[in-house]
Amino acid sequence: MKHLLIPIALLLLSLSAQAQDKRTEVLLETTQGNIRIALYNETPKHRDNFLELVRTHFYDSLLFHRVIDEFMIQGGDPTSKHAEPGQRLGRGELDYTIEPEFCLPLHYHRRGVVAAAREPDRINPQRRSGACQFYIVWGRPLTDAQIRRVQERLDTLTQGQAVITPEMIQTYKTVGGTPHLDGQYTVFGEVTEGLDVVDGIQHMAVDKYYRPYTDVRILRATILP
After folding, report:
1. What is the average pLDDT across 185-197?
2. pTM of the model
């Protein structure tokens, strides 16, 4: 009997570890198509905050209000729900911020990741994330020379804390991303399905505030089983 208990205990430990590693996923149903997002367990404060906002239907009917071609798409401004055409958006937030959870080199600004928007360094030197606005990275592939210049700038901005590793370099060269944001904005998830939808949105025509002329609305956000 004792010999049987050992493999059973090991099996239970293995299943427990797998359960802890499993990422919770959220589905964003938008007017341009569906985007499925997996949230990282390594950023629990951001993960749990995002899930709570989804549970309370906070994101339902909000817009992707800031879209920059070959860079990213941004949403989550609560004032966008009833915004008039041409209205400038992006300043709406909730009344709290979240401690940064930088996880380099595990999670970085490669194409398809989800990160938290925040106020700029001059008024937010701790780089705390805003409560609700987020962006999905696109970013074009970079050359070795471009990556070297980014690293030089990161050395200054992050006091040498954000290092672009060889594995990251390879991804930035072949897939694309926005390495100049590494170590400064918290990456807390990634798109697992619907990257083609993100691609379509980031090519849309926008006004001088980078708001699409045709509203891109999150119809519903739900937590997937």
Report:
1. 98
2. 0.91
